[in-house]
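Example record

The entry below shows one chain as it appears in the dataset: sequence first, then structure tokens.
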Amino acid sequence: MRHTYYLIIIFNILLFLTLGLAYYLQVNAETYSYQSLEFSYSFHLGFTFIFTNIILIVHKKIGQHLGFVFLAQLTLKIILFLFLKKYYVEAAFELPWQTFFVPYLICLITEVSAILYLLSNKEKKQDYGSKKS
């Protein structure tokens, strides 16, 4: 259990640092509205924080289906973002494609690195167990 807490803390620090740095750089570029940046970054941060932490907590129960759960999470994220953009954001402010893809790619890279870490640890444990027998 201690290993899971350590992994969650490392993931969250990495997520907040990378998204914070990217947000800072995009705000200082002054090519996008604050509303669009705040919406996009807060959506991606919140969604990634909640769902990836849930995956990290229950990864032992998910087992070999970890990749499928991750794929469903990414699909749900895109669908929910497009739904919110169409019905809630479109009339309020413009949302350029860069404001979606920069935080999306940063979150994707951090999520994939966490999932790959979990999967590589599972393979190491399985390989070790098979060599012992």
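Notes for this example: The longest helix spans residues 97-132. The chain has five helices and no strands.
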